[in-house]
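Same chain as my last thread, 666 residues:
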Amino acid sequence: MECGSAWVDMNADSEEEVEFDEDEDLLERNETSEQGLFDMVTTSSSAAPPPPPPAPSVQKRKRKVRKANTNVISVKLGTLTQDVAVATGDPVFCVKCQAALSAIDVAQMAAEGKDKEKGARVWHCSFCSTDNELNLDDEEMPGEESVDYILEPPNEAVSRGSSSSEKQLIFCIDISGSMCVTTEIEGKHELKGAEARKRLDSLNTERADQWAPREKRNVTYVSRLQSVQAAVDAQLAQMEQEQPSRRVGLVTFNGEVTVIGDGYQPPVTIAGDKLDDYDQLLQLGKSQSPGVPISKAKKALSTKLFALEETGPTALGPALLVCIGMASQNPGSEIVVCTDGLSNVGLGQLDDINTEEKKRASERFYEQIGDFAVLHGVTISIIGIKGQDCRMEQLGALSDKTNGGVNIVDPLRITQEFSSILSQPIIATNVGVKLILHKGLFVRAEDGEDEKERSTTKDSFITRDVGNVTTESAFAFEFGVRPIEEAKALGIDLELSALPFQLQIRYTKLDGMKCIRIISREQKATRDREQAELAANVDVLGLNAVQKSAKIAQKGEYTAARLENFTHTKLMRKVAMGSEDKKQKFVAWGSKQRVLETELKTVKAREMDEGLALSDDDEDDECNEEAAEEKVQQRKAKKAVKEQARKDRRGDETAKVLWSFRSKRK
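reply #2:
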């Protein structure tokens, strides 16, 4: 748990009015200093002249936005690999707010002399001020900031399959007809596995010239399948050297699903009506787990890999379900899917779903297999081939749910993408997080909804089911300070020098042991905003800005996402001026954040060019407690229609950007 600043900013929220037009690059807007948001460090000899001011626009709009501040908490779940103190007994929770007894409370009890009392002692909760009866021996009292409690011992059956050698890696490869599309590369190259081309060449017994007029001759044409074959084989070779005991399986799909497994077992082909039978596909997968380690299977698996040829349609949904069945036997297993088109055979069809019933059935299928994968500690990563539509909006949700990777890549860069995905193994499964704040604070909605709805039920806690986590899993929460009038009405004292924060992480280790980690910390409070900003953590603020903007965009609120991006960038620029290290981090962060701004601006421009009537004017509406209920419901209905419309027409590139920006996988 890290904070956006060493200080809690106790000031009330403030707004600013932003005047803009849809064609403007908000991140390039000049400030009063005559610098753009990312013009950080220049010299008189090398500085380029300032860019000209944007041309006047007739489409200027004004929007009030809440100014970003440093009140952010980040959760880095890779820390679950770190050893912390293991407490004896069970955790004790406050009867009202469910905060756990922590070292903060023990220290307070000691300061008040209550730790020496005989019999039942009273613990005054530092979060909600509730008095709790405490019956613990001294050795059971938590004494560290981070403490682990063991809820269940390791499961013997799971433990046997929890080592790195037992975790499976399943490559799920598209071999449909479109995988024969080629990419041109300079020079003549001998491609491993080009058997089909060699057979065709053998028919040219006269060795006659086969070149078309003006066709380049000093080039090699590499098919999508050949690129995937080379990338998978490279990973097999690497694992043979670095993880020789790991078990690897191969599943292919076109109009059928073929389980090649480890290359030693006889291939199993699944076709016909079976491709529409959920239970049968799952059971077939469970019965086909690879049994031979890669040190023995490499040669056989490579031979089967390079014998693959492209043909037929795309049974992606059934293939995924079979792979999940295979991987579900061992928590921590991974599935890497590589495809270039829409699933159009069997369960989970994404092509030609022209009715609401078909659309909902497809969505339910991917939700169901995603939930099953999370329950069994399986991650699913999706790699789409650039140039084709594979409905990444739908498939990306599957990767996000299981904490896998998602990307659209050039065929010649698949090897690098495989390496990136496989560099982040699962460290824990069934992870759930609960953040508890002092009752004078509240957690903001992650998608920005509370900025408009102004809900009066602002909770001082939030829970999130995370599922599988890797060493790089991270996400952030924003929190606010209750208005003084509200705090007084609730009997809450905001004149505090420090405020407590607690993170409760429930998780299952790969050996089946179930634990809860309690992390408790106090942060100093200040009403001097500049003091909080001076002690800001750029990494924490940057993580929050990226994820929140992407989540708002996925709700279909493109303009709101851009303005969220804008106000966070202004804050980041300001706090980054504090040190050279912060400046460099900000510039690196900003280059990535501009990708989101550019993509959203491009999508909005495309909508206007196509005459699509998806206005963001509803975001300008003032909808507070006094607004008529009818108006509130009308705005919500309009937003729901817009969200679904933008989701349905979102292209793969935009979907990839949004999924990767909101991802917990960094």
